[in-house]
Amino acid sequence: VTDMPTLLTDRVEIRPFVRGDRDVCRVLLGGEPEERDRWLEWTVRSPRELAALAQPPYGDRALVERATGRVVGAIGLVPSLLPLAPDGRGFTARSRPEVGLFWALLPEHRGRGYATEGARTVGAWALDKFGLERIIATTERDNSASIRVMERLGMRILHHGGPPEWLQVVGVWEHP
Ligand SMILES: CC(C)(COP(=O)(O)OP(=O)(O)OC[C@H]1O[C@@H](n2cnc3c(N)ncnc32)[C@H](O)[C@@H]1OP(=O)(O)O)[C@@H](O)C(=O)NCCC(=O)NCCS
């Protein structure tokens, strides 16, 4: 079984999205409402289908504040094709598939450490579960909040510069 179980930390729960999360997903992840609803349907179905194909549990999960039960953000594993060198310390001409981490919080729930707490838990679980060498994260040069999450996770920060823009900054979390 490759599905991700519900993960708990002191303050947050990481669980699969359900159809009842439609309204919060529209706000949290934006886009056209119909497009976001299609995405949610796919996200709700994908854990089972990926597990059936023995694939890693890629996709977003809901980040829930345990004290209130509210969805405060999204967190998950993303397949990421990028020209990171095999030793993870620089870049090469050819791309490789890497396992990436994604995070996003509703604006009113930022500044409390929820993204870092969730990402640390999902990342540690995936590194261990799949015996990964490393997990990466990518973002734009001016996304300082996301770069600070990478730093709090202890990621090594590399500057690729892009294009594309999301490849300007790469964080690398090596298996200890
Ligand atoms: C990127 C993003 C998730 C970061 O959110 P965030 O709230 O800054 O990150 P965290 O949840 O880790 O919170 C850390 C902040 O909370 C503060 N904090 C307060 N209490 C804390 C606690 N108990 N533990 C840790 N940090 C705490 C930290 O000091 C830090 O603030 P600082 O960076 O100003 O010092 C958020 O800006 C976001 O959703 N952006 C839009 C989506 C996005 O860009 N995603 C990334 C795509 S690549």
Written account of the structure:
Helices cover 30% and strands 34% of the residues. The strands form two sheets. Strands 1-2-3-4-5 form a five-stranded antiparallel beta sheet. Strands 6-8-7 form a three-stranded antiparallel beta sheet. It has helices spanning 22-29, 33-52, 114-129, 144-152, and strands at residues 7-8, 12-16, 59-65, 71-84, 91-105, 134-139, 156-159, 169-174. The model has no long low-confidence stretch (mean pLDDT 97). The chain is built from four helices and eight strands, in the order E-E-H-H-E-E-E-H-E-H-E-E. The structure holds coenzyme A. Coenzyme A binds at residues 103-105, 110-116, 139, 143, 145-146, 148-149, 152. The site of coenzyme A (COA) has 17 residues, from strand 5, helix 3 and helix 4.
Beta-strand content estimate: 25-35%
Relative helix content = 25-40%
Multimeric state: single chain
What distance lies between the first and last C-alpha atoms, to the nearest angstrom?
A: 24 Å
Summarize the structure.
This protein is an alpha+beta fold. 30% of the residues lie in helices and 34% in strands.
